[in-house]
Amino acid sequence: MLGSSVEIRNVDKFFGDFQALDKVNLQIKRGEFFSLLGPSGCGKTTLLRIIAGLEYPDSGDVLFDGISVVSIPANKREANTIFQNYALFPHLTVFENIAFSLRLKKMSENEIREKVEKLINLVRLEGQENKKPIQLSGGQRQRVAIARALANEPKVLLLDEPVSALDAKLRQELLLELDNLHDQVGITFIYVTHDQAEAISVSDHVAVMNNGRIVQIGTPYEIYESPADRFVATFIGETNLMKAEVVDVNDEFIRVIAKGLGEFSCYKDKEVSKGDKILLTLRPEKIKISTKPLEGINSFHGVVEEEIYMGYQTKYFVRLDEGYILKIYKQHVNYLLDEKIIHWKDEVFVTWNPNDSFIVEVEKG
Amino acid sequence: MNPGKFSRLITFLILIFFYIPIFVVIMFSFNASKSPVWVGFSFMWYKELFTSSYTIWKAFLNSIIVAISASFVATVLGTLGAIGLYWGKFKGKDYIWIISYLPLIIPDIIIGVSLLIFFVFIKMKLSLLTIFIAHVTFSLPYALMIVFSRLQDFEYSIIEAAYDLGATEEIALFKVIVPISFPGILAAFFMSLTLSIDDFVITFFVAGPGSTTLPLKIYSMIRFGISPTINAISTLMLVGTIVMSIFMRKYLRYIF
Ligand SMILES: Nc1ncnc2c1ncn2[C@@H]1O[C@H](COP(=O)(O)OP(=O)(O)OP(=O)(O)O)[C@@H](O)[C@H]1O
Ligand SMILES: [Mg+2]
């Protein structure tokens, strides 16, 4: 493998009195596509800069392939960064931007030409060699930044929101390209983003950050399907949060009672006992909705309060008989031929599988 | 009168006010008489300037030597100072910033007097060297300000990108910072050049025997009545300035 593994051990970072990173621990395998996901200001860029060597941790350690690199300055570290604003050299052409690190290594003109041409093909910038960054589109600039970073043959590529400055369609395209590129070059990618959809769609593992702390690390699937806490549940995708009290505990399932909902069953994914107050999360697409009564352990009746047609799906807000408003996403498999189109003010039945809700907070009762 | 016409008139008047004296100088440099009355067209003063005005040329040469060397040094120091002030992190930066641009508003006469007292105090003989030092001193804040304002529109992450790609501090300075801010550096150099070429007040205090610059020379000549050779050299300098500014514009365009 060409990439390095990266380990962050107990890293703290202060800016004055403000703690930007708080005991951050991460293990990133070699060759992995790893994402740091979190809201603006949570410390993603700071952590990335510490990995790059552009910022020093106040305590803790950073290791590449098991060897500490904190004492190695940025210009000697085998990691290269794609900056949030690309930071291309405005006075140099595309060719010279990409050749920057090669010229520093005193390579021969032929070698440089050969290598830059290869990279230009890789990021599909043929014909743009002699343009200055100012003459390029946003997407092209991003590709120059990638080629420039790859020219240095890093073992770790650090990407700081590389597509956030682009429009939605281009963002999707470039994201796919990045994913392909990752497969081709085989080095470790550490990708920073505040967009959960981006992180989920391309990463092998995702670390969710909040207020300078890592709150959950897992595969995109784990992060989405079993969020560790309320923050992760609400930050990633949309969800229904339900406060409930445990009334009965079995081996696998528990019975709870919730204000606005009544009594229902859920999966016991955390140790709880009778009388505990818990917070549950339930994804809107996991709930079935129909105008006819539905079979199931957790079945409720309500009225559609709001209906938002999205094309590929419809979002419903259903007020249950006891008052709770449930968010439900219904996928359109065959919109017009579906049993019956559900509309505003319709009376509906809803149900979900007890396996689909997760406990995100427990308060011992 | 509508505002458009009015502002055009004002502009026109300002330009006349500006250029009539210059035009008069040009005109009389071609006058066939010593007195300021138009007699006829002639190149006689140019001939005199080029054949029998050794001291004027000496002064002109002194001016050029001082201007180029002082501007060069002021620009280098100003550039380094601007980079330090812009990106450096040290205590009292704000105060250093204030004292760096304060000389811009200190009257020349005070700078002149204090430099003279200083040179006398350290027992330095007044010569071209003292003029050079004085010119570096008063050009420096301008050079610093000009380069500084150029630095403001480029982002630090560009320098970090250079480090990230393996550059040392020196390489980042010479391959990234200097080329990007080169238009500003060049502008600082030309600004210093113009300041230096026509400085009279400060130079007057720190010039010694045999180190006369062109403005000092012209002043001393005028005391014995206006010689039209002054008109001739003024006209030539004017042409020089115009040529230089055209050249500079072209050059600045190439840099971007
Ligand atoms: N040099 C600095 N001096 C002081 N505070 C800083 C500095 N750099 C970052 N911070 C603070 O640290 C916190 C984390 O910043 P960081 O840039 O890492 O956030 P981020 O997660 O990358 O956010 P965004 O998504 O907006 O880029 C912010 O509150 C920021 O104000
Ligand atoms: Mg950031």
Provide structural commentary:
The complex is a heterodimer of chains A (365) and B (256). Chain A is 23% helix and 36% strand. Chain A has 365 residues and is α+β, with helices and mostly antiparallel strands. Chain A has 2 domains: 6-234, P-loop containing nucleotide triphosphate hydrolases (Rossmann fold); 238-363, Beta Barrel (OB fold (Dihydrolipoamide Acetyltransferase, E2P)). In chain A, the strands form 4 sheets. Chain A has a 6-stranded mixed β-sheet, with helices on both faces. Chain A has a 5-stranded antiparallel β-sheet with strand order 13-12-11-14-20. In chain A, helix 2 (94-104) packs across helix 3 (109-122), helix 2 (94-104) packs parallel to helix 4 (138-151) and helix 3 (109-122) crosses helix 4. The longest helix of chain A has 18 residues, at 168-185. Chain A starts with 5 loop residues before the first strand and ends with a strand. In chain B, helix 3 packs parallel to helix 6. Chain B is an all-alpha fold and 256 residues long. The interface between A and B is medium-sized, with 25 and 19 residues. Bound molecules: adenosine-5'-triphosphate (ATP) and magnesium ion. Adenosine-5'-triphosphate binds next to strand 2 and helix 1 of chain A.
